[in-house]
Amino acid sequence: MPAPRTVLLTGAAGGLGTLMRELLPAYGYDLRLLDLRPIEGEPDAIVADLADRDAVREAVRGVDAILHLAGISLEAPFEKILRANIEGTYHLYEAAREEGVGRIVFASSNHAVGYTPRPRGDDPLIPVDTPRRPDTFYGLSKCFGEDLAQLYWDRHGLETVSVRIGSCFPEPTSVRMLSVWMSPADGARLFHAALTAEHVGHTVVHGSSANTRLWWDLGTARALGYEPQDDSEPYAEKLIAEQGELQEGNEAHAYLGGQFVTDPPIWPY
User: Fold this and answer.
1) Is the per-residue pLDDT at 100 higher than 70?
2) How many CB atoms lie within 10 A of CB 38?
3) How does pLDDT run across 126-178, given as a tens digit for each residue?
4) Nearest to 85 by CA among 74, 95, 96
5) Chain segment 7-26, per-residue pLDDT in tens
6) Is 155 exposed, middle or buried (0-12, 13-18, 19+ CB in 10 A)?
7) Mean pLDDT of all residues in 91-117
8) pTM (two decimals)
């Protein structure tokens, strides 16, 4: 499909949202920004809670597509996850349906399948159709988002690419992250491919760079036209010297979700 001109970027003040609002305009997008809090230097950004259905519908009105990054991105009590990630995502999909938006790119997470054992040795890469095994209420909310996307495609013809993001930071910060890291530039490449690929229906893809230590299959992402350019390997020597190799018998090193299966970081707000 031709590149959508106007894209609603939810979660625009967050870490990933900040990266994408810097990188995506180069692909020709006019970004409409939305977040729960004001964005410094962006006076036209929409400040709204996804719990406010009227505000969400107004934000969606007239856009060509949505990149949905908003929500709680760490573990939190279920009640908070329910409001922000589950009910909020539902409100966004309903607004998109009501306003005739044809494409959503949904920020899912590796934590939707966090209890999947990591590959070792000659094990095959984790396929995108691996059974969902959430490691937290946060991961569970991403499973819900993927199922919601499937429902809205089957029932309403609203297309979604659900991107199971590994870790998108300027550089990896842990040995585990060497296997799931997605550079910001590759993140923009993948989101652009997800926004423009033809006939996606509901497609689930793994979101990372072409890492030497890759744990999961990027086939469905590449099928969208994604061509990752980066690799975490230049950071490996320093991180391994500081942290050591992943250890057998360490539960946090045994699964795709890493620390989230043992001592998940808690949302501070």
Assistant:
1) yes
2) 11
3) 999 999 999 999 999 999 999 999 999 999 999 999 999 999 999 999 999 99
4) 74
5) 999 999 999 999 999 999 99
6) exposed
7) 98
8) 0.97
Q: Residue 202 forms beta bridges with which residues?
A: 160
For position 35, what pLDDT does the model report?
98
d(CA 219, CA 226): 9
Q: Which residues pair with 216 in a beta bridge?
A: 126
Q: Which of 93, 115, 138, 255 is catalytic?
A: 138
The pLDDT of 173-192, averaged and rounded, is: 98
- Type of residue numbered 44: D
In 3-state terms, what secondary structure has residue 10?
strand
Active-site annotation holds for 269: no
Query: In 3D, which of 170, 145, 26, 19 has the Cα closest to residue 87?
Result: 145
Give the span between the Cα atoms of 257 and 225, in whole angstroms: 27
Instruction: Give the E-state strand segments of 36-102 in sequence order.
Output: 46-47, 65-68
Dump the DSSP string for the chain. Answer: -PPPSEEEEETTTSHHHHHHHHHGGGGT-EEEEEESS--TT-TT-EE--TT-HHHHHHHHTT-SEEEE--S--SB--HHHHIIIIIIHHHHHHHHHHHHT--EEEEEEEGGGGTTSBPP-TTPPPBPTTSPP--SSHHHHHHHHHHHHHHHHHHHH--EEEEEEE-B-SSS--STTHHHHB--HHHHHHHHHHHHH-S--SEEEEEE----TT--B--HHHHHTT------SGGGHHHHHHHH-S--TT-HHHHBTTGGGGTSPPBP--
Residue 64 has pLDDT above 70, yes or no: yes
pLDDT at 161: 99
